[in-house]
Amino acid sequence: MAAQTQPRTRLSRRSTLAGFAALPSLAWGQNEPLITVFADVSLKHALNKAGFIYVAQTLHPVRFSYGTSSALARQIEQGAPADVFISADIDWMDYLAKKQLIVASTRRSLFSNHLALIAGAKSKISLKIGSKMPILRALGDKRLAMEGPDAPSGRYGQAALTKLGVWDQVKDHVAPAENVRAALNSVASGEAPLGIVYDTDATGERGVRIVGVFADSDHAPIVYTGAVLKASSNANATNFLEALASPLEARAIRGFGFRILKG
Q1: How far apart are CA 66 and CA 13, in angstroms?
Q2: Tens-digit pLDDT profile for residues 219-236
Q3: How far apart are CA 43 and CA 253, in angstroms?
Q4: Of 157, 154, 256, 161, nearest in space to 205 by CA
Q5: Which residues contact 77 (CB under 8 A, 6 or more apart)?
Q6: Of 139, 150, 120, 111, which is closest to residue 252 (Cα–Cα)?
Q7: The whole model's pTM is what?
């Protein structure tokens, strides 16, 4: 089918393996196979924007599945049909690498981020992030919203609170969230007075404000890594991954607060 001179974006859903959620796609009337990208949910807005740019330039259709890096890695391990994996940390990419499920030569560091402590937009909580900060007092009788330690932002958050000497105080006052967006929504709705998320998530949500940003030295470097999966037969998968560092896509991603890494 010939490419249209004025292509239109169509949002569609296709089934994956039984038990896996249907994936939204950016399709442009092409007969080429979809590039299926499994990516951490914290990248949702940035990748959607970059994806539209990529499709407009190449006419290679793309679809995204978002979730916690840990859950997506396990889905890939179980045979979920995907071409590219983008993790919010190195550990879950290492997990798939050890199982020989990625094409090692395509692996690259893509983006970096910061970790933030957030409160509701109308909250009066004021807390300076630092050693022995009185976070438990700020929580009162409520809980701290954050991902569990199995997920990247939860692991970064626990490491930061441990280094600052307050994890033992709050560990029994944590409300584990399904993913970083759920933690964000918990604070925005007023269910939790404080939460730990990426600052890129917080800046895009009117219902929260950033109380403070954790120092990079408080936790392991936040490095989003990407790779093509060995099970992929899509010849355009590597091209998509490489395109994320191209000027237009990189500018779009930076617009959401991410830092672009080289390599």
Answers
A1: 14
A2: 999 999 999 999 999 999
A3: 9
A4: 256
A5: 95, 96, 99, 101
A6: 111
A7: 0.85
3-state secondary structure of 188: helix
| Strand arrangement of the beta sheet that strand 84-87 belongs to | 10-14, 23-27, 62-67, 35-40, 84-87, 223-228, 108-112, 259-260
Q: In the numeric block, which tokens belong to residue 73?
A: 């890695």
Q: Considering Cα of 241, then 17, then 71, then 94, what sign does the dihedral take?
A: negative
Q: Which two tokens stand for residue 14?
A: 């296709």
Q: Which helix (H) or strand (E) holds 153?
A: helix 152-163
Residue 154 CA neighbour count, 13 Å, CB half: 22
For residue 20 the two structure tokens come to 């896996």
Angstrom CA distances, 238 to 110, 233, 244, 249, stand at 13, 11, 10, 15
* Per-residue DSSP letter, 20: S
Mean pLDDT of 50-69: 95
Q: What SS3 state is found at 189?
A: coil
d(CA 148, CA 241): 28
Length of the chain in terms of residues written: 263
Please state whether 61 falls in left (phi above 0), alpha (psi between -120 and 50) or beta: beta
d(CA 228, CA 104): 8
The tens digit of pLDDT for each residue in 7-34 reads 333 333 333 332 333 345 555 445 778 9
**For the chain, what is the largest distance between any 2 Cα atoms, rounded to a whole number of angstroms?**
64
Q: How confident is the prediction for the chain on average, in pLDDT?
A: 89
